[in-house]
Amino acid sequence: MFDDLILPRIWPIGLILFNFLFFLIAIPIEAYVYHKRLNFDKKTSVFYAIAVNLFSGVFGWLLFFFVEPRLPIQLQTELINFVFFNSLKSTNTQGVLIFTTITIFFFTFLVKFFLLRFFVFLLNEDFTKKREEQPTSPRARLRFLTKAQFQNTNLVTTTIIANSLSYTAITIVLVLRNR
């Protein structure tokens, strides 16, 4: 898989800096949403926001570097033009770009949701302690399952709100940059 991976001689410094800028925009926004909606303390919400954004960013870049060599030559050329020179030559590429950004938004949402769910489950204090009180009655089990389902729904809603707000802020920055 990584046999044809070669370090580039030219680094897209502008793209790397914009990626850091996007992290600097997304992390505080998402940490604020996690703090307000999930009632985490500030330190925990910042930790979750950093972890979720960095892991999803790394996963996205790995996916990009896996898919990019397999694209048709015309799309590769347009992609390189866009990354290095911020210009698109073909009008057909703009439609593909819009479809790709919508796909990236939903893919990022799913990755962030599953990462947040994993981190909350992994770092939960109840998970690390011994389970002393198991719900034994059917009523207690139903209450436990209802609470777990509500928490899962709350995570989905919170993740979509946080992801939407951070993508909106990033889009505003991109629009202001291209003015």
Q: Radius of gyration in whole Å, from Cα?
A: 20 Å
The share of residues in extended strands comes to under 5%
Order of helices and strands: HHHHHH
- The beta-strand count equals 0
User: What share of the residues lie within helices?
Assistant: over 70%
* N-end to C-end Cα span: 40 Å
Envelope shape: elongated
Q: Which stretches are poorly predicted, pLDDT < 50 over at least 5 residues?
A: none
Nearest-integer average pLDDT: 80
Structural class label? mainly alpha
Main sheet: strands, sense, barrel? none
> What's the number of helices?
6
What does this structure look like?
The longest helix has 40 residues, at 138-177. With 179 residues, the protein is mainly alpha-helical. The two termini are 40 Å apart. The chain is built from six helices and no strands. Helix 2 (42-67) packs across helix 4 and helix 4 packs antiparallel against helix 6.
Secondary structure blueprint with pairings:
Elements (H helix, E strand, L loop, with lengths): L12 H26 L3 H26 L5 H13 L6 H31 L2 H4 L9 H40 L2
Helix pairs in contact: 1-2, 1-6, 2-4, 4-6
Compose a concise summary of this entry:
With 179 residues, the chain is an all-alpha fold.
Characteristic terms for this protein:
179 residues, mainly alpha
